């Protein structure tokens, strides 16, 4: 078990600086997910923890110790790669015990560990097979077993589920959550998929362009986004955001916060539009409601409307979020908030 | 209906017919003709006087010291050239693969250059370099106070000199093949190995070598076959001498090309059999160590 700390870390590749003066602490024993669009530096952070691409300046600490000078193999971390990086020339057993052999673990202990781990991940029957004869899901398990068998203090995972089909991905998600519960070690998980982040994380670290946007629990990230980027990155569909028409400020609301009616409502924010698309997803239906000014996605739990129907969209005041010109969230206590909200209310009267 | 099915069965054969005809005419037929010749005392001037003599050519072959000398020379040549070329080519490939620098790009182009030059020109230039009295090699050796060599002109060093030229000629080409193999190994595997705390030697031995084993195996077989049939360097540089010290099997065949065609053919057949056996042995011994993706 170990906590991880980044202190004033900068990483450059040639002339381009990907991460600048970043500070971050990843708590011991937590399932932390680094999430963000591609190129945001999340994988770079992960590889710095592993020591595969050491930081240009600053320090990375594992369990309070500066590991800058320590080789990847001696940091007590294990990593699951996106393409699994299984040794194709070795059998499943050899793959799993390669790290143990290098760490001079005795043969009896090795056999015992391999047997027990492979039973845990359901690979017992495949130990003498070559990876090329395994399915994607089984390879994923080999990669997991290879990481688990070393009993690392930190688990690093670089988009480990992105090569699996949708069904298997959901299943592996649950298995990873259970695995984390069982092992209780620090998990650092990188993904670009906010659904994965929301479903698995204790703490989400949301990044964009090498800068941490918000670091919070999935709950907080969803309900109290710090800024427009966070609001629009998280959620399916993401938050509806539109300019307020003054000071470069924006307002937004979650798709499920709006109410659709056939008759005019007296909600705080309201507009009349026409349904242009309808996505029936089973338990919920997502409509796109358009007028000259706004195009918003509205999520309803009842499928009452059809395409081309004219509807009224209404959002209660407590569900509306405001963002300033600097993209940061404007809290309700801010003097500007009341003015902006009033503006929004008047908009509906026009 | 019947017509289409018949055409369906015939079609593949018709399609490979042109290639098969070429193979029959230029590969299968000559091999069998060679086999036939090896049973005759062949008269080049008057074909009618050629005589079937059964296995006499083979008997003569196996009782001749010259043949054993040639066979021995060929074996020494093959083993040395194959080993040296593969080891040096692998080292060069590893060196070039380490970093993408200007120097490495230059090195890569440089080591390949000998391969595009005619072996005749190469042999002639090396003969000049190796000339004992005026050649550059001895001059350099002398400058550094090292003992000089008689190179091609002594039976003790002539074979080594021929080997040197062959290795120099081949090494860049095979280094390029191995380099391509090295570059196709996914870098994440090495990262996984680093996280598994594997030493450099272990990474090379357990990961790099198995990953490039198909190409190594290919190079081994191609080089063995090629080296067994070595001729051009010997023909130009030494003519099999001095004192038969560089006479190889193919050169042996060449020497008998006109005065005893049957005997030369028999030697050719033996050469073919040796190569076939060697390739077979390679496959039996090494095939399960070669990892195909």
Can you characterise this structure?
The complex is a heterodimer of chains A (350) and B (293). By secondary structure, chain A is of the alpha+beta class. Chain A has nine helices and 19 strands. Chain A has two domains: 4-223, P-loop containing nucleotide triphosphate hydrolases (Rossmann fold); 236-349, Nucleic acid-binding proteins (OB fold (Dihydrolipoamide Acetyltransferase, E2P), Beta Barrel), CATH 2.40.50.140. Helices cover 29% and strands 31% of the residues of chain A. In chain B, 73% of the residues lie in helices and 1% in strands. By secondary structure, chain B is mainly alpha-helical. In chain B, strands 1-2 form a two-stranded antiparallel ribbon. Chain B has a single domain (57-289), classed as Orthogonal Bundle (MetI-like fold), CATH 1.10.3720. The relative contact order of chain B is 0.12. The mean pLDDT of chain B is 89. The A-B interface holds A 50-52, 71-74, 77-79, 81-83, 85-90, 98-99, 102-103, 132, 146, 150 and B 186, 188-189, 191-199, 202, 206-207, 210-211, 213, 291, 293.
Name the CATH superfamily assignment of chain B: MetI-like
Order of strands across the main sheet of chain B? 1-2
DSSP helix count of chain B? Answer: 13
Number of strands of chain A: 19
Mean pLDDT of chain A comes to: 89
Q: Largest interface, with Cβ-Cβ < 8 Å? A: A-B, 26 and 20 residues
What's the helix-strand series of chain B?
A: HEEHHHHHHHHHHHH
Strand content of chain B: under 5%
Structural class of chain B: mainly alpha
CATH topology of chain B, by name, is MetI-like fold
Biggest pleated sheet of chain A: 6 strands, mixed
- What is the CATH C-level name of the largest domain in chain A? Alpha Beta
Write down the domain tally of chain A.
2
CATH architecture of the largest domain in chain A: 3-Layer(aba) Sandwich
Mean pLDDT across every amino acid position of chain B: 89
Amount of helix of chain B: over 70%
Proportion of beta-strand residues of chain A: 25-35%
Low-pLDDT residue intervals, each spanning 5 or more residues of chain B:
none
Q: Major sheet of chain B: size, sense and barrel closure?
A: 2 strands, antiparallel
Structurally, the number of domains of chain B stands at 1
According to CATH, the fold-level topology of the largest domain in chain A is Rossmann fold
């Amino acid at each position: 078990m170990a906590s991880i700390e980044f202190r004033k870390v900068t990483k450059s590749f040639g002339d381009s600086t990907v991460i600048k003066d970043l500070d971050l602490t990843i708590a011991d024993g937590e399932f932390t997910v680094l999430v963000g669009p591609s190129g945001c530096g999340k994988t770079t952070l992960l590889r710095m923890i592993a020591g595969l691409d050491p930081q240009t300046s600053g320090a990375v600490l594992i369990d309070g110790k500066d590991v800058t000078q320590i080789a990847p193999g001696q940091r007590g971390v294990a990593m699951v790669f996106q393409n699994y990086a299984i040794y194709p020339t070795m059998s499943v057993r050899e793959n799993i015990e390669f790290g143990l052999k290098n760490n001079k673990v005795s043969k009896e202990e090795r056999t015992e560990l391999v047997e027990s781990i492979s039973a845990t991940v359901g690979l017992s029957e495949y130990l003498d097979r070559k990876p090329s004869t395994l399915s994607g899901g089984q390879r994923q398990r080999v990669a997991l077993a290879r990481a688990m068998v070393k009993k690392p203090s930190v688990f690093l995972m670089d988009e480990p589920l992105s090569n699996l089909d949708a069904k298997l991905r959901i299943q592996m998600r649950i298995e990873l959550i259970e695995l984390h519960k069982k092992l209780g070690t620090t998990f650092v998980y990188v993904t670009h998929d906010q659904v994965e982040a929301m479903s698995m994380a204790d703490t989400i670290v949301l990044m964009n362009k090498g800068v941490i946007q918000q670091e919070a629990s999935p709950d907080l990230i969803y309900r109290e986004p710090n800024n427009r980027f966070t609001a629009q990155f998280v959620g399916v569909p993401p938050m509806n955001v539109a300019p307020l028409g003054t000071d470069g400020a924006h307002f937004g609301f979650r798709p499920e916060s709006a109410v659709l009616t056939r008759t005019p409502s007296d909600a705080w924010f309201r507009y009349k539009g026409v349904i242009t698309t309808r996505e029936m997803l089973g338990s919920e239906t997502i409509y796109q409601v358009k007028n000259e000014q706004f195009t918003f996605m509205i999520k309803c739990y009842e499928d009452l409307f059809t395409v081309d129907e004219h509807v009224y969209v209404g959002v209660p005041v407590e569900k509306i979020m405001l963002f300033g010109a600097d993209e940061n969230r404007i809290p309700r206590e801010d003097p500007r908030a009341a003015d902006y909200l009033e503006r929004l209310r008047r908009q509906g009267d026009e | 209906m019947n017509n289409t099915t018949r055409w369906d069965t015939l079609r593949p054969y018709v399609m490979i017919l042109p290639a098969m005809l070429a193979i029959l005419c230029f590969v299968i037929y000559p091999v069998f003709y060679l086999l036939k010749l090896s049973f005759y005392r062949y008269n080049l001037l008057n074909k009618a006087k050629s005589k079937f003599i059964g296995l006499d050519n083979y008997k003569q072959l196996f009782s001749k010291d010259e043949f054993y000398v040639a066979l021995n020379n060929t074996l020494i040549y093959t083993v040395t050239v194959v080993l040296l070329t593969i080891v040096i080519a692998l080292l060069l490939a590893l060196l070039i693969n380490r970093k993408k620098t200007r120097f490495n790009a230059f090195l890569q182009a440089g080591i390949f250059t000998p391969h595009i030059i005619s072996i005749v020109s190469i042999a002639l230039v090396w003969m000049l370099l190796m000339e004992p009295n005026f050649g550059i090699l001895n001059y350099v050796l002398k400058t550094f106070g090292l003992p000089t060599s008689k190179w091609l002109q002594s039976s003790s060093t002539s074979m080594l000199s021929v080997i040197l030229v062959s290795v120099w000629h081949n090494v860049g080409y095979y280094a390029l093949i191995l380099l391509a193999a090295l570059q196709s190994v996914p870098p994440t595997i090495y990262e996984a190995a680093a996280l598994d705390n594997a030493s450099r030697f272990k990474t090379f031995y357990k990961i790099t070598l198995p990953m490039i084993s198909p190409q190594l195996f290919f190079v081994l077989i191609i080089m063995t076959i090629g080296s067994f049939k070595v001729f051009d360097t010997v023909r130009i540089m030494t003519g099999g001498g001095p004192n038969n010290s560089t006479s190889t099997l193919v050169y042996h065949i060449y020497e008998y090309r006109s005065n005893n065609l049957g005997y030369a053919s028999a030697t050719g057949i033996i050469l073919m059999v040796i190569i076939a056996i060697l390739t077979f042995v390679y496959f039996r011994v090494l095939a399960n160590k070669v990892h195909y993706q």
